[in-house]
């Protein structure tokens, strides 16, 4: 309790902590929203791949001082296109193609960062450094959050139908491929924002875990999106608290909280056997009273 | 009139069929039968442009089918469907309005009313709020027929709609097909159960890597054609008890 009070009073005192809280909340919302579509489309591996493949773009942005979003987008989309190209122009399965492309991009990113000779940067990129976000980082994150919300709101029904029944979407003329690449582009932008909070290695956890937790609790897409965003925010904020209080790296702290929320849901959520048992017990208790 | 001309589809250089030509008449329920792997689903997907075709055209009243996407409702086989998807019955039916809504428009009251009416037609109003994983096979198939109703298409294509469903659902779906026929729509049903062929269909296409026979069911559904396409034994069993009923 004491440490929670001191966390809250520190929030009132320190700008850096306020910035961290704001960023963590925004990243929690956007990764929950996009992560929902990633898990519904069975693209967890693709999400992991794209989030790693942006590394060369991030490195080049640091080296030459241009906007990190541009660098990351270029490499993210390039990776998505290459993965699609290799899978459709060979008899290899998509997961093999993903494995080849993303590891190559990741390796290239490492070499570029080592050329830039900045080991502190590397550590922050890999594991996140939420306690050091700049005002410009906050602005960038806010812009990405706005784009993500617009994307999900404007293309809600297209995202729904192409995730649920892609063949049907194709028969009525929806450009399913184009939507896929648009989603990949938005995913790269979310990755760049999540770099600050959890780092590149753990971005995939922010995409998948809160959305998976929400999936266990909901029966409608609109509810899934809201609950996933909420789980993302809860994980980020509680993780930030642990990070500040115990001086843990912010990324692992946030991801462990997200995993704990999932673990609890796995036992008690309505879509799980345990949750159904609970509900049955609750019903019986009500009958007896 | 739905007109398929010179259609050739090949997977990995092995043609499923070559230069296939067939027509489907409006105001008729046309069945497509043939052995497994004869190219039934391939013909449908080729017509609709869902797979790559090597040659050929599909036109509806002289216009290419590929430009008439909102006039076609396609109820495909449901084996690949994700039944855990967070969506309920009413929402699935509502997706039938997406094609004509186009981008940036959400379904409104008109669309919701049309969906509710379609659900009533397939007798699933009570299950409107149920998540689709909690339905029987027959109920699920009726949901997708309700979506086809909402699409308000001119051409309705169903791929094996009666596989693994209960008799009540089969009857309900057949009723809808007859209403569509009486409204002058073009209905195509890929079918596997030879028993009900002459009861269900007006026209029949027998397919086996190409057209074996096509036309009114009386003249196409003959012992000779079935023996040639499937086997003499099957033909004997089917036609032994009086005229293929």
UniProtKB/TrEMBL annotation, chain A:
Subcellular location: Cell membrane; Membrane
Keyword Membrane found: yes
Transmembrane segment boundaries: 20-40, 60-86, 98-118, 138-156, 176-194, 200-217, 224-242, 248-269
Superkingdom, natural source: Bacteria
Primary location group: membrane
Membrane topology, from the record: Multi-pass membrane protein
InterPro entries given in the database record: ABC_BtuC-like, ABC_TroCD
Keyword set includes Lipid metabolism: no
Keywords: Membrane, Transmembrane, Transmembrane helix, Transport
Family that this chain belongs to: Belongs to the ABC-3 integral membrane protein family.
Protein name according to UniProt: Metal ABC transporter permease
Annotated source species: Lactiplantibacillus dongliensis
UniProtKB/TrEMBL annotation, chain B:
Keywords in alphabetical order: ATP-binding, Nucleotide-binding, Transport
Claim: Ribonucleoprotein is one of the keywords in the record: no
InterPro entries: AAA+_ATPase, ABC_transporter-like_ATP-bd, ABC_transporter-like_CS, Metal_Ion_Import_ABC, P-loop_NTPase
Recorded GO MF terms: ATP binding
Highest taxon in the source lineage: Bacteria
Presence of keyword Disulfide bond: no
PROSITE patterns for the chain: ABC_TRANSPORTER_1 (PS00211), ABC_TRANSPORTER_2 (PS50893)
ABC transporter domain ranges (all copies): 2-234
Record family assignment: Belongs to the ABC transporter superfamily.
Protein's UniProt name: Metal ABC transporter ATP-binding protein
Organism annotation: Lactiplantibacillus dongliensis
């Amino acid at each position: 309790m004491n440490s929670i009070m001191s966390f809250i009073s520190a929030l009132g005192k320190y700008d850096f902590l306020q910035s961290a809280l704001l960023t963590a909340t925004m990243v929690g919302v956007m990764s929950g929203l996009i992560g929902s579509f990633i898990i519904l489309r069975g693209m967890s591996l693709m999400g992991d791949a794209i989030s790693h493949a942006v590394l060369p773009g991030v490195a080049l942005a640091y080296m030459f001082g241009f906007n990190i979003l541009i660098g990351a987008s270029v490499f993210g989309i390039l990776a998505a296109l290459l993965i699609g190209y290799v899978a459709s122009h060979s008899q290899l399965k998509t997961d093999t193609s993903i494995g080849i492309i993303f590891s190559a991009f990741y390796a290239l990113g490492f070499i570029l960062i080592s050329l830039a000779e900045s080991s502190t940067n590397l550590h922050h990129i890999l594991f996140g450094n939420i306690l050091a976000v700049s005002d410009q980082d906050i602005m960038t994150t806010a812009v990405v959050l706005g784009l993500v919300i617009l994307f999900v709101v404007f293309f809600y029904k297209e995202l729904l139908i192409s995730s649920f029944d892609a063949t049907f979407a194709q028969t009525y003329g929806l450009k399913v491929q184009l939507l896929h690449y648009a989603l990949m582009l938005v995913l790269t932008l979310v990755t760049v924002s999540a770099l600050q909070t959890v780092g590149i290695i753990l971005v995939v956890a922010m995409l998948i875990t809160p959305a998976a937790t929400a999936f266990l609790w909901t029966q409608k897409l609109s509810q899934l999106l809201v609950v996933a965003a909420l789980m993302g925010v809860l994980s980020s904020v509680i993780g930030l608290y642990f990070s500040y209080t115990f001086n843990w790296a912010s990324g692992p702290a946030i991801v462990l909280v997200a995993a704990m929320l999932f673990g609890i849901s796995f036992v008690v959520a309505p879509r799980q056997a345990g949750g159904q048992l609970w509900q049955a017990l609750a019903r019986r208790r009500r009958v007896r009273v | 009139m739905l007109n398929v001309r010179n259609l050739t589809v090949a997977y990995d250089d092995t043609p499923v069929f070559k230069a296939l030509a067939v027509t489907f008449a409006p105001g008729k329920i046309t069945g497509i039968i043939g052995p497994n792997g004869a190219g039934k689903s391939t013909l449908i997907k080729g017509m609709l442009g869902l797979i790559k075709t090597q040659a050929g055209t599909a036109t509806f009243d002289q216009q290419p089918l590929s430009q008439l996407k909102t006039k076609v409702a396609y109820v495909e086989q449901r084996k690949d469907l994700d039944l855990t998807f967070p969506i309920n019955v009413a929402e699935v039916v509502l997706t039938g309005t997406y094609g004509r809504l186009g981008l940036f428009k959400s379904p409104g009251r008109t669309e919701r009313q049309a969906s509710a009416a379609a659900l009533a037609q397939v007798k699933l109003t009570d299950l409107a709020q149920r998540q689709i994983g909690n339905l029987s096979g027959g109920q699920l198939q009726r949901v997708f027929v309700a979506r086809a109703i909402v699409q308000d298409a001119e051409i309705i294509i169903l791929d094996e709609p009666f596989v693994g469903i209960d008799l009540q659902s089969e009857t309900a779906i057949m009723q809808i097909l007859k209403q569509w026929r009486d409204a002058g729509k073009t209905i195509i049903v890929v079918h596997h159960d030879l028993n009900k062929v002459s009861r269900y269909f007006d026209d029949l296409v027998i397919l086996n890597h190409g057209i074996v026979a096509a036309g009114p069911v009386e003249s196409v559904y003959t012992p000779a054609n079935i023996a040639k396409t499937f086997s003499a034994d099957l033909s004997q069993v089917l036609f032994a008890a009086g005229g293929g009923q």
